[in-house]
Design a protein that fits this description.
With 427 residues, the chain is α+β, with helices and mostly antiparallel strands. It folds into two domains: 244 residues, Orthogonal Bundle (MetI-like fold); 119 residues, no CATH class. Helices cover 50% and strands 10% of the residues.
C-alpha cells in the first residue's frame, strides 16, 4: 500500500517536476555552464567573465545601484505602508484612501515608467515634478520677465559686470532719463504692459522711461519712443552714487519711473535681478538624481502593496494588548513603538523580504525612465544582464555570469524567508 501511494504521488508530481526542471533547473544549470565560456560560446574562459563583473566600471555601477535599491526601496515602501496602514485604521474614509494608494499596483511597470518619464521631464510646462518645484521656488525667488534683455551699443547703457547695466552718463533732476533695451520677444512681454510713455520732467526728482526699443515690422528709431513700443513693466532701477545705492524705483506698466532728488548726479543701474534666467527646476533624470527618482516611482507603485499586507496583519492584532498598554499609561507613540510594531514584526519581515527579492530583478522602470544619456548612471544588474546578452556588443558569457550573480544574491534572502516561515509554522 505504501509503495502504491508513493507511485501514485510521483505520477501526480511528475508533470510539475518536468515543468520545473525545464523552466527552472535547466536554465540555471545552463547559465552556470555558459558563464564559463567565451563570447562565442566555443572556448573555455574560466573565471574571466566573473573577473570582468568586478573590474568593469559599468557593471560595478550596476552592482552599487542594486545595493542602493535593496537598502532604500524596500525600507521606504515598507515604512510608508506601515504609516498608511496605522493612520487609516481610525479614519472613516480609510478604505477609500487605501484603495487610492493601492491603485498603482494595477498599473504595469511599462505604463508606470512612461508616466514617470513624463513626470520627471525637465521642462516645467510638461513635467509635473518640476512644475511643482519651480512653483515653490518662484514663490520665494521669482524669476525675471526679461532674462535676455540687453542694450544696444548705441543705447545710453553699458554693461556693469555681474549681469547688470548702468547709464554711461549721470542723470540730472528735470532731465528725463531714457533706458531702452532690446532682446525681449514681443510675445514674451507681460500681458498688462502698456505703450511706453515719455517721462514728464519733475523739478524735484529724476524721471525716466524703460522700454523695449523694438518695433514689429521694422521702421522704428533707436533711442526714441515709437508707436506700439511697450514699457518694461516691473523693471527695477537703482540710483548709484559713489558706489552706494541712494534711491530705487520700479517701472510702471508704461515703463515710466520716478526717483527722488537724491538721485541727482547718480548713475542709473539696472540690477542683474532684472535679467535673471528663468529657473527650470531640477534635472531629475540627470546622472546625480536619476536613481533616487526611479526609486521614488517604485515606491509609488509598491507602497500600496505593503500597506495592504500590513493592514491585514494589523486587523489580526489582539486589541486587548493595545488597550492594556493604554490603561498602563502608555501614549499612542509608545503603544505604536513598543506594542504594535513588535507584534507586526512577522508581517513586516514578509513585506520587506518580498520587496527585496523584487528590487533585485528590477528592470522595466530603469530601462524606460532613465534617458540614454543617464542609463549608465542608473544601471542595475537586471538591465546590465539584458544589455550584455542582447545589446549591440553582446557577450553571453558575461550576461550568464551576471545572471548567476543575481541568483547568488537572491539565495540568502530566500533562505532567510524559508527559515522564518518554518519558525512561524512551529509556533
Amino acid at each position: 500500500m505504501t509503495r502504491t501511494r508513493r507511485i501514485v504521488a510521483a505520477g501526480f508530481l511528475l508533470p510539475a517536476l518536468v515543468l520545473l526542471g525545464a523552466l527552472v533547473v535547466y536554465p540555471i544549470v545552463y547559465s552556470v555552464y555558459r558563464s564559463f565560456l567565451d563570447r562565442t560560446g566555443t572556448g573555455f574562459a574560466g573565471l574571466d567573465n566573473y573577473v570582468e563583473l568586478f573590474t568593469d566600471d559599468t557593471i560595478l555601477t550596476a552592482v552599487r545601484n542594486n545595493a542602493i535599491w535593496v537598502v532604500v526601496a524596500p525600507t521606504v515602501a515598507t515604512a510608508l505602508g506601515l504609516i498608511f496602514a496605522v493612520l487609516t485604521e481610525r479614519v472613516r474614509w480609510g478604505t477609500a484612501f487605501k484603495l487610492l494608494v493601492f491603485m498603482p499596483m494595477a498599473i504595469s511597470m511599462l505604463a508606470a515608467g512612461i508616466i514617470f518619464r513624463l513626470v520627471y521631464e525637465q521642462d516645467p510646462d510638461r513635467g509635473v515634478a518640476n512644475a511643482v518645484w519651480v512653483g515653490v521656488h518662484d514663490t520665494f525667488a521669482e524669476s525675471s520677465t526679461y532674462p535676455k534683455a540687453r542694450p544696444l551699443p548705441a543705447h545710453p547703457l553699458e554693461a556693469a559686470g555681474g549681469g547688470a547695466f548702468v547709464t554711461k552718463e549721470p542723470v540730472r533732476v528735470g532731465k528725463p532719463a531714457l533706458l531702452p533695451l532690446v532682446g525681449v520677444a514681443p510675445g514674451a512681454m507681460p500681458q498688462d504692459a502698456r505703450r511706453a510713455a515719455p517721462p514728464d520732467p519733475a523739478p524735484d526728482g529724476v524721471t525716466g522711461t524703460a522700454w523695449l526699443d523694438f518695433t514689429r515690422g521694422g521702421g522704428g528709431r533707436t533711442n526714441a519712443l515709437d508707436d506700439h513700443e511697450l514699457g518694461l513693466k516691473g523693471l527695477k532701477v537703482e540710483a548709484v552714487k559713489d558706489g552706494r545705492v541712494v534711491a530705487t524705483a520700479t517701472a510702471a506698466a508704461d515703463g515710466t519711473f520716478t526717483l527722488p532728488a537724491a538721485a541727482d548726479g547718480a548713475h542709473l543701474r539696472l540690477p542683474a535681478s532684472n535679467f535673471r534666467e528663468r529657473y527650470n527646476g531640477v534635472d531629475w533624470l540627470g546622472p546625480t538624481l536619476v536613481t533616487p527618482a526611479i526609486i521614488g516611482s517604485y515606491v509609488w507603485m509598491w507602497a500600496g502593496f505593503a500597506m495592504v499586507l500590513i493592514a491585514a496583519g494589523l486587523a489580526g492584532l489582539p486589541r486587548e494588548l493595545l488597550e492594556a498598554a493604554r490603561v498602563d499609561g502608555a501614549n499612542e507613540w509608545q503603544v505604536f513603538r513598543r506594542v504594535t510594531v513588535p507584534l507586526l514584526a512577522p508581517v513586516l519581515a514578509v513585506v520587506l523580504v518580498t520587496l527585496m527579492i523584487n528590487v533585485l530583478k528590477i528592470f522595466d522602470l530603469v530601462f524606460i525612465i532613465a534617458p540614454g544619456s543617464a542609463q549608465d548612471d542608473a544601471n542595475v544588474l537586471a538591465l546590465q544582464l539584458y544589455r550584455s546578452s542582447f545589446g549591440t556588443d553582446a557577450h553571453l558569457g558575461v550576461g550568464s555570469a551576471i545572471s548567476v550573480l543575481l541568483l547568488l544574491l537572491v539565495i540568502p534572502v530566500m533562505f532567510f524567508n524559508i527559515r522564518r516561515i518554518r519558525r512561524e509554522t512551529r509556533r
